[in-house]
């Protein structure tokens, strides 16, 4: 079944595809030992297009690698035939690998399974917010690139992230169940276009602790130990604290239980912070988590200008951790933390009661998050990156800038 642009009655193919005349020109120029970039310049194509064309459509029957225009055209037409059997439908081992990392259950630190909320898949996301299904929830891009790490010599264990998305979102494109879309971080049942996408300062924030005064070494992530923090807020002002290390993306979660007396009477303006994320509670939670780290991993902490950090001076003294504050309405100054908070919404959706999750559940979620490979880490996990930092004695030295 040839595609429409290759049918005998079809008009000339668009400039998106190389035509036979261009392939003949490529073959002639290669015979003259002209480089790929010069060939691309003469044809008005990208050098990557020429390189990919030669790699995919070279003639190999004679035992060598010789580019012939007619053979290359035959290869291109054969590759363009549709329909094709989806790779996930024909490779059971690859399909199982993808499904395990999309929907696999998360575990506690001792290895026992943490089931999470029991949520039925409804095939849509509209309507009242509800708890989300807990899973390993690797993204298709993470799965695609991690295959190169886990199976470096097995060419059968390769798939693009787009093929995984199509298997989830397009009916009949693969063997993945449609309900696995609930395991994606967005939880969308349908794909959506990508293009959709003046507060007062606090008295405890002074110019000398603004983020502009943070050491320059924190900006380029060359030195570990610089953290970003924030709260994610849920139903009834429930909250969970998040800390993310800028270099390794290692994440810590702060358990902020509600205080005694919460909900027993109407909330009082300027009353005690019974919701559990007042300045004292946040200070103590950060100290409990951060004090366990070695000194060279406690260089600074960046936070927004929330009232929960009113006791930052006590934190700086007790934990030897300088605190810096971002400018108002500037979440990009804590980009690593904002990205991580988005990942955590997979497990703690907006509009749900976060106080229901105890320390054990937070440990399970953070273990799952720190065990997911990251593109920015070369597809290593944050846990692997932190282990490398702890094992390297050079991390104890502070980089200097001239």
Automatic annotation (TrEMBL):
<dbReference type="InterPro" id="IPR036397">
    <property type="entry name" value="RNaseH_sf"/>
</dbReference>
<dbReference type="GO" id="GO:0015074">
    <property type="term" value="P:DNA integration"/>
</dbReference>
<dbReference type="InterPro" id="IPR012337">
    <property type="entry name" value="RNaseH-like_sf"/>
</dbReference>
<dbReference type="GO" id="GO:0005829">
    <property type="term" value="C:cytosol"/>
</dbReference>
<dbReference type="Pfam" id="PF13936">
    <property type="entry name" value="HTH_38"/>
</dbReference>
<protein>
    <submittedName>
        <fullName>IS30 family transposase</fullName>
    </submittedName>
</protein>
<feature type="domain" description="Integrase catalytic">
    <location>
        <begin position="211"/>
        <end position="390"/>
    </location>
</feature>
<comment type="function">
    <text>Required for the transposition of the insertion element.</text>
</comment>
<dbReference type="GO" id="GO:0006313">
    <property type="term" value="P:DNA transposition"/>
</dbReference>
<dbReference type="InterPro" id="IPR025246">
    <property type="entry name" value="IS30-like_HTH"/>
</dbReference>
<dbReference type="InterPro" id="IPR053392">
    <property type="entry name" value="Transposase_IS30-like"/>
</dbReference>
<keyword id="KW-0815">Transposition</keyword>
<dbReference type="GO" id="GO:0004803">
    <property type="term" value="F:transposase activity"/>
</dbReference>
<comment type="similarity">
    <text>Belongs to the transposase IS30 family.</text>
</comment>
<keyword id="KW-0238">DNA-binding</keyword>
<keyword id="KW-0233">DNA recombination</keyword>
<dbReference type="InterPro" id="IPR051917">
    <property type="entry name" value="Transposase-Integrase"/>
</dbReference>
<dbReference type="GO" id="GO:0003677">
    <property type="term" value="F:DNA binding"/>
</dbReference>
<dbReference type="InterPro" id="IPR001598">
    <property type="entry name" value="Transposase_IS30_CS"/>
</dbReference>
<dbReference type="InterPro" id="IPR001584">
    <property type="entry name" value="Integrase_cat-core"/>
</dbReference>
């Amino acid at each position: 079944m040839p595609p429409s642009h290759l049918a005998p009655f079809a008009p000339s193919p668009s400039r998106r595809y190389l035509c036979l005349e261009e392939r003949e020109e490529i073959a002639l120029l290669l015979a003259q030992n002209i480089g790929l970039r010069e060939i691309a310049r003469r044809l008005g194509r990208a050098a990557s297009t020429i390189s990919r064309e030669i790699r995919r459509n070279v003639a190999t029957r004679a035992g060598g690698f010789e580019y012939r225009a007619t053979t290359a055209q035959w290869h291109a037409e054969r590759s363009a035939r549709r329909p094709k059997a989806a790779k996930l439908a024909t490779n059971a081992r690859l399909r199982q690998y993808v499904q395990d990392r999309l929907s696999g259950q998360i575990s506690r630190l001792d290895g026992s399974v943490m089931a999470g909320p029991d949520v039925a898949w409804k095939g849509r996301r509209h309507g009242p917010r509800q708890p989300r299904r807990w899973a390993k929830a690797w993204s298709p891009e993470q799965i695609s690139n991690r295959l190169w790490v886990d199976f470096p010599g097995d060419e059968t264990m390769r798939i693009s992230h787009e093929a995984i998305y199509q298997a989830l979102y397009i009916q009949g494109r693969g063997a993945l169940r449609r309900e696995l879309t609930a395991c994606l971080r967005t939880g969308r049942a349908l794909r959506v276009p990508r293009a959709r996408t003046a507060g007062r300062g606090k008295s405890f924030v002074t110019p000398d602790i603004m983020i502009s005064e943070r050491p320059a070494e924190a900006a380029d992530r060359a030195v570990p130990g610089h953290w970003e923090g924030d709260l994610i807020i849920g139903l009834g002002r429930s909250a969970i604290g998040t800390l993310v290390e800028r270099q390794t993306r290692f994440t810590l979660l702060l358990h902020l239980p509600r205080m005694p007396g919460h909900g027993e009477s109407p909330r009082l303006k300027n009353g005690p912070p019974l919701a559990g994320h007042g300045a004292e509670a946040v200070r103590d939670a950060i100290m409990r988590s951060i004090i366990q780290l070695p000194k060279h991993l406690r260089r600074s902490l960046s936070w927004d200008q929330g009232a929960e950090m009113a006791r930052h001076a006590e934190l700086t003294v007790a934990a030897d951790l300088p605190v810096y504050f971002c400018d108002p309405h500037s979440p990009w100054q804590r980009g690593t933390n904002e990205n991580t908070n988005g990942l955590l919404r997979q497990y703690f959706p907006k509009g749900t009661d976060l106080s229901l999750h105890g320390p054990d559940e937070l440990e399970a979620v953070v273990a799952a998050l720190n065990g997911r490979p990251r593109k920015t880490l070369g597809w290593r996990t944050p846990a692997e990156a932190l282990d490398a930092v702890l094992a390297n004695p050079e991390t104890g030295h502070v980089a200097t800038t001239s």
